[in-house]
Amino acid sequence: MNTPFISAENKDFISRCCYRELLQQVIQINFEEFDLEIGYDSLTVGDGGQVGDSRTIILVLTGSFVPDLIVSMSHQMWLHLQSDESVGSIGFKINYKEIDKESCGDPGTPLYGFQEGSGFLNGNVLRFECQFGFELIGERTITCQNNNQWSANIPMCICEYLDLQSMGEYVQ
Ligand SMILES: [Ca+2]
To answer: What PANTHER family does the record point to (predicted)?
Structure first.
């Protein structure tokens, strides 16, 4: 692991501009709630200090399907909410935290499931299993990509009985 060299003369410069980079932290946001009018209202998430800079856009989100979490590559992140003039949206609720650089963060564990893996760093792979009686829907393994995003959302564990019923295949 590389530790940045700090001399007496560059210490002041660092304390003014870059100490977060030295701490090697990036920003992770999690969505607790998200529901925007699909196609008309959107939330743009960007990486860096320049709000709206199209070169730094990570994702544009609309509707109700969102990633489990989004992680920046730098120590700054911007969010830009846009709505049209008609039809309201519930909106969104997020929380954020600082995590180590070159990490995708902990995406969590599915309800009624397990998470196995070596960590959350770039290149690490997580594997998911469901408890007995629950079926895994989605990706069984996900990879922490070099852009600090997981390759997919975590899967869901669905009760097999409920799943069959919801698909209209329940046999009495
Ligand atoms: Ca709207």
So the answer is: PROTEIN CBR-CLEC-78 (PTHR45656)
